[in-house]
Design a protein that fits this description.
InterPro entries: Ig-like_dom, Ig-like_dom_sf, Ig-like_fold, Ig/MHC_CS, Ig_C1-set, Immune_Resp_Modulators. Residues 1-95 form the Ig-like domain. The chain is mainly beta and 99 residues long. 11% of the residues lie in helices and 53% in strands. The protein has helices at 8-13, 68-72; strands at residues 2-4, 15-25, 30-36, 39-40, 45-49, 58-67, 76-83, 90-95. It has a four-stranded antiparallel sheet. It is globular.
Length: 99
């Protein structure tokens, strides 16, 4: 699982996208929960799952979209992944100040 902060250009000019990427998982069912400063986000993310790869695994990207102003007001961005292959949810995060 990887998390990617928005580019400096996005932060400067309007709408920002934070991306969570899951690779090589099976079966297909996986869920991503976004948290901003430990508050679960709803309604401002979109998921896209690839078709099954040659090795029978899937990939998924989840994009959290915020205004630059909203993004600047918070510090910690996290995506929490739940999948039956994991014994507990897996969280990847970044602190905006470290980017």
């Amino acid at each position: 699982v990887f998390i990617f902060p928005p580019s400096d250009e996005q932060v400067k000019y309007g709408t920002v996208s934070v991306v969570c990427l899951l690779n090589n998982f099976y079966p297909r069912e996986a869920s991503v929960k976004w948290k901003v400063d430990d508050v679960v986000q709803t309604g401002n993310s979109q998921e896209s799952v690839t078709e099954q790869d040659k090795d029978n695994t899937y990939s998924l990207s989840s994009t959290l979209t915020l205004s630059s102003t909203e993004y600047q007001q918070h510090k910690v961005y996290a995506c929490e992944v739940t999948h039956q292959g994991l014994s507990s949810p897996l969280t990847k995060s970044f602190n905006k100040g470290d980017c």
